[in-house]
Amino acid sequence: MESPGPVVFFGTPQFAVPSLERLAASEFRPALVVSQPSRRVGRGQRVQSPPIAIRADELGLYCEQVDRVGDNVFLERLETLESWIGVVVAFGQIFPDRLLELPAEGCVNVHASLLPRYRGAAPIQAAIAAGDTITGVTTMRMARDLDSGPILLEREVDIGPRETSVELSPRLAEAGAELLVETLRGLAAGSLEASPQDASEVTWAPRLEKADGTVDWSLPAVVLYNRYRAYSPWPGLTTSFHGKSVKIVSCGLIESGGDSKIVSEIEPSRLGPGTVVARSPELRVLCGDGRLLELSALKKPGRRELSGLEFANGERLAIGDRFGSPDSP
């Protein structure tokens, strides 16, 4: 089978790279790759090219970095290509109607959830934070409203009980790449029909903010553990001790039943969410449901990462002290 016409690929971050690689090795090798521009990053403000631009160059594909895909000059150049389809994987910009309608077959998007669940910018984090055990990838025809287009194909992917977003993301990227090629082959053969999303089942996964990582110790331990898994590496989980910010670099959920004796040894008047109930051999903190989180690595701004016991020693932390309270004794 040959592609019915030129394919234009839109993508920017690492998540999009497997899809580009699969297309480049298939009958749908892109005639044009479009990414967002290189940016200055880090303290040194060095210019860094997007992963898609780097990989496109390695694959011998022409890549154009575009500030705004709605720019008329860009759209006029794209119109001369007379493309068959536009493929969009984590590009990061809203597409105007004119662009959605330019390719003969329209635009197809790879989304990292089982739509209509988790429309939006952070579907991987949202699935883990919710404690879901299954997520997946969806290909859909793009429409004006965000992630609202009719579904072409979906594929389920299991979420491991300790899996973080950093670990899940590349697995979803690979699954999405496979599903994308299958989708394009179905569209090229005329054998694939799109199904509308059920609007009553829509949930949202908005872009994460730094404040999303602030720990509320009154929440159940499993909720905080799932947020740790979801928000690694950014925004991460952040709490405070003696009024100063502390990042929880690594933590674990203590299985139920193993903590009752520890908690019973603390003076009842000093118990409350965020209370330290053990400091050696591991730093353990009481959550709102009476269960414990084990803090195995922490970091203060501008300092090196410390184990839980190192942190406890350095801060002269005692049993009964509390995280998240400026009035910690």
How is this structure best described in words?
The protein has 329 residues and is an alpha/beta fold. It has two domains: 7-201, 3-Layer(aba) Sandwich (Rossmann fold), CATH 3.40.50; 210-314, Formyl transferase, C-terminal domain (Methionyl-tRNA Fmet Formyltransferase, Chain A, domain 2, Roll). Helix content is 26%, strand content 23%. The chain has nine helices and 15 strands. The protein has helices at residues 17-24, 51-58, 72-81, 97-101, 123-129, 165-189, 221-230, 260-264, 308-314; strands at residues 7-11, 32-35, 39-41, 46-48, 63-65, 85-89, 107-111, 134-141, 151-158, 237-241, 244-253, 276-278, 283-286, 292-299, 306-307. Helix 5 (123-129) runs antiparallel to helix 7 (221-230). The radius of gyration is 24 Å and the shape is elongated.
List the helices and strands and how they pair.
Blueprint: E1 7-11, H1 17-24, E2 32-35, E3 39-41, E4 46-48, H2 51-58, E5 63-65, H3 72-81, E6 85-89, H4 97-101, E7 107-111, H5 123-129, E8 134-141, E9 151-158, H6 165-189, H7 221-230, E10 237-241, E11 244-253, H8 260-264, E12 276-278, E13 283-286, E14 292-299, E15 306-307, H9 308-314
Parallel strand pairs: 1-2, 1-6, 2-5, 6-7
Antiparallel strand pairs: 3-4, 7-8, 8-9, 10-11, 11-14, 12-13, 13-14, 14-15
